[in-house]
Amino acid sequence: MGEKSRPLVEGAFAWAREMKAAQPLTIGAWADFNSPFSRRMMELSDVVSFHAYDGLAGTETKVKICREYGRPILCTEWMARGHGSRFETHLPFFKANRIGCYNWGLVAGRTQTYFPWGSPQGAPEPKLWHHDIFRADGTAFKAREAEFIKVATGRLPASALPQRIVLVPTAEKTPVAWRYTLEKPADDWFKFDFNDAAWKQGAAPFGTLEPPFARKPTPSGRASTSGSAASSKCR
Q1: Does residue 180 contact residue 202 with C-beta atoms inside 8 Å?
Q2: What are the start-end ranges of the E strands in the chain?
């Protein structure tokens, strides 16, 4: 209800202060963190809490605003895989910045929070779960994700994660120069000896921001590695 809720928010804090509450008080900011109402909620709170169902860049912007009040920060809602809020992207950030956090959903059950918001009744199980980590039988939705959580929280050493062999340079650690085009290419663009010299050049990754990347991507198109015989479509 936005500003219509402000009198109740102000009153609730006043009642708690009048009773000399021993525990810290907070109310979670969740929309337009620069609005007067969100700013007032943070100002009233002993611990600044917030929701972050966006990608890492958006979460970093929210945290920057929350830090302006010089108080402990707690993320009370996050982790929506389809929105770019994932364990692989956010847990290391929260840990490095000493931000407490807890996500919505644990085991896929009656609340069905593994379905994206707005899913119709009777929809099939989504390929990409929205929330939740485990199935009802205790197995993880994504085994590698579960292992990552254990590594990020110190329950397992980093060496426990499967090691990958890089065949072609990727942009996971540093940007990589790739050739790309936003126009329909020649029919033989995927062939081994195709000359992509006329294509544009940009830094990967391309298209939608995906974990574990935190950089602004080059517009999506068809891309081939620069200086390499390998080529592929990039969405």
Answers
A1: yes
A2: 48-52, 73-78, 100-101, 176-181, 200-204, 221-225, 231-234
Give the pLDDT of residue 76. Answer: 97
Separation of alpha carbons 108 and 132, rounded Å: 6
CB neighbour burial string for 193-211, b if at least 16 within 10 angstroms, e if fewer: eeebeebeebebbbeebeb
- Return the C-alpha torsion angle 39, 45, 49, 51, nearest 10: -40
The structure's pTM equals 0.70
Count how many Cα atoms sit within 13 Å of the Cα of residue 42 in the half-sphere of its side chain: 29
Encoded tokens for 133: 């980590």
- CA-angle at 158, arms to 152 and 162, nearest 5°: 115
**Least confident residue range of 7-11, 51-55, 172-176:** 172-176
